[in-house]
Records
---
Amino acid sequence: MSPEMIRLIASSTGETLYMVGVSALIATLFGLPLGVYLATSGKGELFAAPWVNRILGVIVNATRSTPFIILVVAIIPFTRLIAGTSIGTNAAIVPLTIAATPFIARLIEGAIREVDQGLVEAARAFGATPLQIVLKVLIPEALPGIVLGLTLAIVSLLGFSAMVGAVGGGGLGDLGIRYGYQRFMPEMMLAVVVVLIVLVQAVQSIGDRLARRLNKRIRHG
Amino acid sequence: MNAPLGYLGDQPSQRLIPAEPIVRLEKISKTFPGRDGQPVTALREIDLAVPQGSILGVIGRSGAGKSTLIRLVNGLEKPSSGKVIVDGANIAALPESELRHARRSIGMIFQHFNLLSSRTAAENIALPLEVAGYDKAEIKARVEELLALVGLSDKRNRYPSELSGGQKQRVGIARALATKPKVLLSDEATSALDPETTRSILDLLARINAELGLTILLITHEMAVIRNIAREVAVIEGGRIVEQGDVFEVFTRPKHEVTRSFLGDEAGRVLPPYVQNRLQKEATPDSQTVIRIGFRGPHATDPVLARLAREEGIEANILSGAVDEIAGRPFGTLVVSVPAAASLKTLDFLKKHGLDTEVLGHVA
């Protein structure tokens, strides 16, 4: 493998990490409150607003059921508005964030719903406000589940980020398509796949380890 | 929040009527919307008063409405009609923000403890104080005090998963006491514990009641809980209170079928099978009448059968019997059989001596 190729792989890996990192961060920023709200605004819940809950649910589902590659193309005008361009790594962050936000919201909703309702009742019984219940009970108790959810989301984003190569987003996917496929360089394709596998493994094991450390429900030897 | 720490600092507030109960339910009814549109009535016209400093137990089968009842007291449930007066305020009518404040003076413990798994024992106890806005130093001092009170000072940094059921409930109790409540609500707090641990938790609650003067309202389906710590009892069935009063009175002279059923598994209430199987409703010329005798208080140790033989010449067969304690007072049950011909004389003799009698049937 030539030094040129290695340089290409390194810079593409950097682009991928940048896209995935920034979009995961922004998507978590939006997805966390959205997920908490989805989990607590149902009928009879802390912030009961069943209609808002239903409408948000429909929007989240609609976004999630749109194939990513179609989403990327469909929101080009919006991407241009936000990023100033529809091509390149920064532009790719916009659809990645939009795809990841509802995904993360659903994962966080699930993690929050796993928290024993008895804890919410106990917190209400000692006079906690709904916001205090979210911040001091629900999120801390759901944290191991939230971390696992975010890990899953980042792994999915690594996959999505390969697709934005198709619209000039850069990154490993772009490299694999342009060199590996279009220029018939199987060794480049292989290298891209290997780097992606290593990244996914690394993210997953860091996430698992962190979740395990946060989970106090299990006795640690 | 700069409330003084420690119970000694709290003086009972001056009242015009000192006998005013700390918790009073007035004509409480509660209906839930049912699945098929038919409303389900959980509680009907409940009147209940919990005197200051007392331990009142509500006993009932599952589904009798006791869970709903206890949740009304701290406003986790709202009544469909009626008033819930706690320490002078109508909990049922308070707006949410005032209700939250009122809840700080009503502690609650739960069957499944409801501790945060992500917090240590000390951090769990600190939570109500954090929520109430105490400062760090105050919280630290108060938590130490509470850990010592429930005997868990050495477990302060343990997570709930590292504690036994009894220890978890002690943490639950300490958490419930953190904001120095006037009332403690206990929702089946010992139902998930073994008898020995139950005993130690009940002892702790009794000690807290005695030392801190804390009023305790507990619900349970276990007779042992009522017998060991309650002074007053209310028996609930089908959303109604069917019997209410002093524990000893209610359980030595049960009036309602449900009350009797709770006594059913207590010592001396169960007939031996060879008697139970032969029991018939009608007397026959040669039959024996089976009588249950209840000895209460001072009579519990009288040699009454010896006197029955000596003074009336009636010899009774003892079929089963036990002497026990309810609310700290001796209480005996004896099941005897006497010849049918002598049964009226026997009943008269026993009543004359102040004993409770009940004819259970006849055996040939």
Note: The first helix of chain B runs from residue 66 to 73.
---
Amino acid sequence: MAQTETATRKAGSLKFRKALIGYSFIAPNFIGFAIFILIPVIFTIVLSVMDWDGFNAMTFAGIDNFRQIFRDRVFRSAFWKTLLYVVFTVALTLLASLGLACALNKNIKGRNAFRSAIFFPYVASMIAIGAVWKQLFEANYGPINNFLRSIGIANPPGWFASTDWAIWGVIIVSIWKYMGYYMLIYLAGLQDIPVQLYEAATLDGASGWQRFMKITLPMLTPSTFFVFIMLTINSFKSFDLIYALTQGGPGTSTTLLANYIYNQTFVYWDYGKSAAASIILFVIVLAVTIVQFRGEKKFTDYL
Amino acid sequence: MIEKRSPVKTVLIYVMLIVLTVVTLLPLVWMVSSSLKLSTEVFTFPIKWIPETFHWENYVTIWEKINLATYTFNSFKLSIIITLIQLITSSFAAYGFSKCQFPGRNALFLAYIATIAIPWQVYMLPQYIMMQRMHLIDTHLAIILLQSFTAFGVFLLRQFYISIPDELLEAARIDGLSEYGTFARIVMPLTKPAMATLVIMSFVTVWNDYMGPMIYFTSDRNKTIQLGVQLFVGQYSAEYGLIMATSVFALIPVLVVFLAFQRFFVEGIASSGLKG
Amino acid sequence: MRKTLSILLIALIAMTSVFANGSSETSADGTTTLTFAVWDYSQNSYLSAVISAFEAQHPDVKIEVQDSPAADYITKLNTQLNGGDDVDLFLIKEADKSKVFYDRGQLTNLTPYIEADGIDMSTYNGTDANFIFDGNTYAMPVRTDQYVLFYNKDIFDAAGVPYPDNDMTWTEFEELAAQLTSGEGATKKYGAYFHSWNACVQNWGVQDGKHTIMDGEYSFFKPYYEMVLRMQEAGTCMSFAQIQASGLSYTDIFAQGNIAMLPMGSWLIQTMIQRNRSGESSVNWGVAVIPHAEDVPNGYTVGATTPICINNASQNKDLAWEFVKFMTGPEGAQILAENGQVPALSGEGYLETYAATPGMPEDIIEGLYASHISPDRPAMDKVTEIDQMLLAEHQLILLGEQSVNEGIANMNARYAEIMGN
């Protein structure tokens, strides 16, 4: 009896000690994070049900902010446009960055130069990106439409001058801009795959495609999880590229949720509405993350 | 064995990469070409890729017109300090979130990710009010505190720590290493590519940040290079030649950091052999 | 979890314990520092000139400038005021925002000061009207800008057409633009250029002084949209799609010498003088009165006023008023004029002083003739939302994605939605 009690106490204190060590690892980051990010974010969540001019005392508004944004046609159009934008941007950027990482992980000549070039759009000046792409996509004389005409498309799209096509132009430029960034994460992930696995598979007669499907892809699961979540979040949040390319136009055809939130905060100064719109974005992202989190857990025994 | 490929495939990969590189480098060419033009020549239709006359003096003018040396120093200072703090605290936290057991771990981690989902502009005002109360407006410390503890670094490193086999850590513990020792001796060396990624991304983010310094810095002595670029943009006109000259200059450190740290993406292969 | 909670608690305590109150800014030697938020400080020479003249008169006062980039000035100012900064003085860049600051109680009521010092507000030509809320004045007008017609004399000379006289209707303008258009491709000379802002079409509806962009019934825009669409079709003005794609600014395109007539704000005068002085442009240009509709008197135009305000949280309101009075009074007006700005204060000699500054075209005084100036955006609730809505519909009309009638119907419907929400 006495023995088991000591044993449980020992086990308990060991568990406590372990927990303490765990907390000590996260504490340096968490304290800063809690004060400077988490608290302001919690404040924002509260704000979504408040009416606040940013200066005087706030008043409780219930679901008024939400009701107002759902009544706003700009919000509704932004909501659906954002889903379209996110689905295509995430899927295509993920594929492009994975493909590039695999190609540039091989021992090819000029590898470093290629990697730098493909990373470059991420750090390029937004003014330059806007200037170059707006002209490439110009409807009448732009090189892209000239090319399309030369291959027999008589009526090429109007791109940024068309409400139907502007969003596709934005999606193309987004993929182009961010593929190098996510390529880096995949490149780092690829370095973590033990060479022996490939050697064993090759001995077993696996083809290149089989090796990719059976080794590379599963071993990259943590990287893919990260890329997927960050891509989703960043696509939901991206507004600066759109600002440089179309400023949300023509009309409101490329106004996405993030632009809507930006306008509510920085242009209209309606803090309650901007918080409410962010909460909607937040809920979507959280749902996607939790689904992914579960998937990751199933995939790796590490958690 | 792995490297053997048909020559046709190799040529195809090269052609694809070269075409892609041309497209990705177009804005760079535009930036360099614009940096050698007069403002009135920068925006033309169609684009004039080679300037009529090369205005090299733009690269001299930017040093005379604004305090570029101060701004560059400030940008370096902030980028380096924030990257270091991020690297150290994030790798600690990532280890905690991936290799330690404690109550509330998953909930806390989810809180980290959740904050990434809220656009910064939305909680900028509460942050500003906080900094105002702390008397930190117009100090570098404000930006350091606000940008050093982002969830991004923790999340990134955690994803790499997860793939380190637990048996490896167990072996180290049996050899008598403490949890901190295991972290320093086993985990850190194994995840160099991940840390290199974080360094590149963190440095670039801080270096290119405009809104943060714009909101927090009012004195000239505190301003960063991206604010310097903005000094050439007036309400009614902008000096695009000088803007681009400054932007091209500001790209150099970013590219140097990229090239310096991406070499870790090769060395990783050798060390990961240990784990098999 | 308990640990997390306690960490959170400590964080909260740490946060709230560093409360601060506004610091008094009188230093040991008796000088008081006033902080003054402005934008583009180095490019607006009148600011430093006014400040040093004021400091010379008040040796015990120092004005400390807080300079921000123009594009983000209002964002930063808004953050500062909401954050409780005690910046004493500030200019308002988008004057219609003054209503929001007033609603929040961030502006000092200036009426008691105006009355105590006996300032005659009628000398501001009505530019102060936008800043009167509930019968009191909350901002003093510093400078005004108005829409005028810039023209390229070289293109007129080449076409053998006389320069625009200072009384022209929009119909005459359209005909003139056709005469001045010539060439093809990259060197084409356009008779006219309407910049991509909604203001550059909608202003001509607001110009009559009867309508504003807050009317809610927008059929008065119709003739002007039809005119611009006709001109786009005829190629006598650059198409909206091309302006968007090229990324050209109105300054660049006018300075490149490809535009015969450009309706634009008088702020462009200073920019063009600088461009010509630095050799970046060699355009020989002039300024004429903006065209008007047949039923609108000549000299009716649209403008914007830049006001100065005192922060309600300022610790030195009386002293701040001294500066406001100086800057918006005769001495300040004279300094503005000498530095190439049109002061809001009307009075003898300011315009002449302004016209005599180096680089001015000789016909400037006649070109700046105005008998009535309507504000481009009245300081009213939700004016920014309405303006953004009008911009979106404007783009769709000029791209041909919707007809003028559809566009106007949409403007009317969305106005009702925004105001009812």
Note: Strands of chain A lie at 50-51, 59-60.
